[in-house]
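[Q] Does anyone have a clean structure-token version of this?
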Amino acid sequence: MAIEDLIQEIKSNAKAEVESIIKKANEEAEEIIKKAEKEANEEAEEIIKKAEKEAKTTKGRILAMARRNANKYIIEAKEKLINECIEEIKKELKKLPSRQYKKFIEKILKEAIKEMKDGYILASRKEDEEIAKKMGIEVKGKIDAIGGVIIKSKDGSKEINSTFDALLERRRDEIRIKIAEKLWKQ
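[A] Here you go.
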């Protein structure tokens, strides 16, 4: 065998070995890439699942907060409307026709006389004074009210506040319920 044949054989073997090493390296690289892609995809799926779960939780929290805020706003609006209705009631009571108002005061004073034999009133309107005097009840002053009277015993131990404001306040919850029922049954 000649040297050239030997060199040729060494080159051929080296080339075959290099090709084998390259082929093996490519296969290993491909294997590593596939494994890395698989791991990356799995990790990406985990991240997506976690993000979706967090998004769902955040969405639920935001919706719950929005519902609470909406309910609070609705309650405040209803409360405002109820208070406006109560103010309207006060305006109407202030404009109550004289005949109806006098009947109301007479009734209150008759009930007060049964409870307190000796007493006097603090009047809010001129009609109160007239009715009280006709019934023989002493008038000892004026009060600032839209209507009604305050009846006091002479010794100061008893007081009946029958002003419209006081009567409305005592029945405020009942009035509020009735207003709400009428407003929201529609």
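[Q] Thanks! Anything notable?
[A] The radius of gyration is 47 Å.
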